[in-house]
Amino acid sequence: MHILPRELESVILHDVAVRPDGVAWAIGEQDGAAWLGRFEADDWRQVKLPPVKGLGLATTIDARGNVWVFIGPPDNWPDRDHSYAARWNGKAWQVTDLGPGLFVKEAVTVGDEIWFLARRGPYDPKSPTVVKRLTGGTWVDTKVPISGEGLDGQVPGEVWAVGRGLERLGTGPEDRQPTAARWNGHRWEKMPLPPQKLPKGGNAIFWDVLVRGHGQVWAVGGIFDPEEPYRSRTLLARWDGSAWRIEVGADEVIEGTGFMEIEADGRGGAWIRDSYDTFLRHVDATGRTLRRQELGGGKDCSQNIAAIARRPGTAMLLGAGAYADCADGAYRAALYQVD
Fold it and tell me: What InterPro entries does the record tag this protein with (predicted)?
């Protein structure tokens, strides 16, 4: 585990990506500006970013090993500044201005392309989702038909987005159900989902998606009850190419936000981030829980993970988050490793 020194305790990490050689790149913010760190097994260093205004929101590594970072305004005020995509080739940054009004939520590498999912406008139930792909040197809006929260793909003809109904927290029954859409290489297709039984006035959301290949897609999220706003039931959905199998958490609700993020474990199963980012859950290829690990072992000193990423070709998982010293409780950014 890497823990940043006390003089950097104002760093907050938002995303992490790992190259096949094991070098990890973690993006975040420090005192209102973007921050990027490069982490190896026994060392780390801060990497100077291009001189653009904004927070470090997302990162991914392309097929050539170049690091991409997305810098922009916070989610509560995206119209304040422009957002930027920056590519590091090991020697210099190449920056593209994405324009104003975007809050970038996720970036992924899909084959030879870079994709990102963003919200256009302030954090509001009716703010639309934007999914753009970099193809032929141009960022193209794909016109995703759902209110998206998560994005993943293996090849440009097999990209999935998941989230909630277009009205997000609207009043109609469909507005409160989770949604999924598949990009077939030319356009998006909404994928029908079996409706979930919801509490009165409640809603269900998919937060993230994992695309293993054609006909192998997992999505994770939660079911929420307005009577218990700080609790949820978990959702784990698996698409086999023809039908969905959706597993809802046990009858008792759990604290937190449901399942927030999913990453392949390299063995046919997956790692899932859940419950206010303080737990990691490991499931096998059938979705059965192998273990649910609380960061910090349940001690009073807190630990959390804001993003997870697997080293390609291995079972090694890295998590970017924070660590609170048990002695003084001060939070410091940290990079965790799970084998």
Answer: Gal_Oxase/kelch_b-propeller (IPR011043)
